[in-house]
Amino acid sequence: MKLTIGVKLFIAYFVITSSIVWIVTDKVLLRVTKGIDEAAEDVMIDTSNLLAQIIGGDIKNNTLDVDHAGNLISTYLDRELNADIYSVTKKNPNLQVYITNQDGIVIYDSTGIRKGKDYSQWNDVHDTLQGKYGRRSSAFNPDIANPSSDQKAMYVAAPIYHQNEIFGVLTVVKPTADLKPYIIEQKKHIEEYAIYLFLISLLFGAGASYAVSRGTRKLVKYTTALSKGENVIAPKIRQIEFSELSQAIEKLRVDLEGREYVEEYINTMAHELRTPITGIKATAENLFMPMSSSQRERFVNNILKANTKMELLVNRLLNLSRIERRDQLENVEKINVKELIKDVLQSPTRKSNIARRGINIEYSVEREFTIKAEKLLAEQALSNIVDNAIDFTPVNSTISIKVSESNTHVNIQVQDQGVGVPEHARRQIFRRFFSSARPDTGKQGNGLGLRFVKKIMSLHNGKVSLRNRFMEDGAVATLKFPIR
Ligand SMILES: Nc1ncnc2c1ncn2[C@@H]1O[C@H](COP(=O)(O)OP(=O)(O)O)[C@@H](O)[C@H]1O
Ligand SMILES: [Mg+2]
Fold first, then answer.
1. For the chain, does the N or the C end have fewer beta carbons within 10 angstroms?
2. Ligand 2 center–CA 383 separation, angstroms
3. Is it true that domain 240-324 has CATH number 1.10.287.130?
4. Can 5-186 and 240-324 be said to share one CATH topology?
5. Where are the domains positioned within the chain?
6. 447 lines ligand 1 (CB under 6 A)
């Protein structure tokens, strides 16, 4: 399966946004965790210093009443709290406290486990005894050698002063796991936002991809239709690049068609004119010879006939080229359809053709119909399909003309009793210069008639069709004029 540009864009968009959202969320979570740790450390510094200050005040004669201090601390640690911090409820201080002397030996421990141990090498005690800020992050339970982040605790120490000397160190311990609920809570929020963000941008991406693929699809459809020679109008696309492209294609099409058109015109002109020109030349040469006046008359007549033929062809081509360049009607008027048909049938050449071939014209017009059209053009459209019917129907047959009305159109139908349009010609009949031999004479027309009719009808927002009759011999040509 080949992926369309829209799908590819969407996939690319999906991958990019999801990784951005993922990376940013991850980084934000890391920052939040760190931020919470830092804030907690800040508070622990205050706590340890406050406790150290209070304990320092208890020192008398260079000795600390450890029992008294221990009591004080354990009462503090046992305080019952019921602090609702957003979603987390804090029940008690949840700290451990130990105190060392100047040598780093633990003289008090709120848990009792550390008492008597030498802590002088732990950073918190060591650095504080040196007069610096002492802290460490290590296992909450000293027996665990390689603690995970949840098993760690923060140790923050403060010096206990007595008479401006460092008397000992007080360390406050808080397990990292205590901070976890806050982190989890924030994480939940951040992830929620991330999902919203992701969904919104995905929706946007889908919209953008759809717009792009719709534009390309329209263009592809348009160019495919053009390449098949179909008569399509350039699609309307809002996206500026696509609409420019579409206009460029349209311009190219018009240019190319124009060039093709001129070529075709010149070719047929040359081709069609060759016969009469050669004829005129030969006849004119003959006229140099001595001959009777009746012979001369015949030759001159031949020249005039050839001349008429040339005139006709030139006029038709000019008419067609004039109308092909038009894009709107000029003198639209109300036309009585009955009158229109009468006018067409009464033109002298047509009348004589009908008579010559013994054709019977039958026409039924239910009632008075009017159309809005440019009179000359409507006449020419009808003339052309009537002429075709006269050409293709057998001698002594009937052509029937019917006028009817649908909801939207007035339809003028011309039916003959000829052989109809052969299958192979069906797609070509509206092309310029397509013409088939007339069954009677074997002669061809110039193949401009139906093309002209089609152009006239499209200028009128109408339609022309040519179909074979159902279950009967003959073709039926229909002109549909819209009712406005
Ligand atoms: N009434 C008809 N019956 C059969 N074929 C028709 C009829 N009208 C038109 N056609 C077909 O359509 C072709 C094109 O018609 P048209 O454009 O009028 O050119 P032309 O009349 O010069 O041949 C005809 O050559 C013929 O093949
Ligand atoms: Mg014709």
1. N
2. 9
3. yes
4. no
5. 5-186, 240-324, 332-482
6. yes
Distance CA 278, CA 306 (A): 10
3-state secondary structure of 325: coil
Question: Is the CB–ligand 1 distance for residue 464 below 6 Å?
Answer: no
- Ligand 1 centroid–CA 343 distance in Å is 22
In the chain the first and final C-alpha atoms are separated, in Å, by: 48
- Strand arrangement of the beta sheet that strand 106-109 belongs to: 106-109, 96-101, 165-175, 152-162, 135-139
For ligand 1, say whether the CB of 421 is within 6 Å of any of its atoms: yes
Cα-to-centroid distance, 385 and ligand 2 (Å): 7
Is the CB–ligand 1 distance for residue 420 below 6 Å? yes
- Identify the pLDDT of residue 394: 95
- Taking 3-state DSSP, the helix, strand and coil percentages for the chain, each rounded to the nearest 5, stand at 55, 20, 30
What is the CATH number assigned to the segment(s) 5-186?
A: 3.30.450.20
Who surrounds ion ligand 2 at CB < 5 A? 388, 445, 449
Q: Which of 384, 421, 469 is the pocket-test mutation for ligand 1 (most atoms within 8 Å of CB)?
A: 421
| 22: its two tokens | 């993922």
Blockwise average pLDDT, block size 10, the chain, 484 residues: 82 90 90 90 94 91 89 89 79 88 94 92 94 92 83 94 92 90 86 90 89 86 82 80 84 77 72 84 91 91 88 80 80 93 92 95 85 92 95 96 93 95 91 87 86 91 94 94 89
Residue 144 CA to ligand 2 center (angstroms) comes to 104
In the reported structure, the alpha carbon of residue 16 is separated from the centroid of ligand 1 by a whole-number distance in angstroms of: 61
**H helical segments located in 228-358:** 240-286, 293-324, 337-345, 348-356
Q: Is the CB of 400 under 6 A from ligand 1?
A: no
Best mutation site among 397, 423, 436 for ligand 1, i.e. most ligand atoms within 8 A of its Cβ?
436
Asked whether 95 and 51 are in contact (CB, 8 A), the reply is: no
Contact (CB, 8 A) for 66 and 73: no
| CA of 242 relative to ligand 1 center, distance in Å | 40
Q: Quick one: pLDDT at residue 148?
A: 86
**Overall fold of domain 332-482:** Heat Shock Protein 90 (3.30.565)
Which ligand is nearest the CA of 435, by number?
1
In whole angstroms, how far apart are CA 287 and each of 282, 295, 298, 313, 481?
A: 9, 9, 10, 26, 52
Give the per-residue pLDDT at 248. Answer: 87
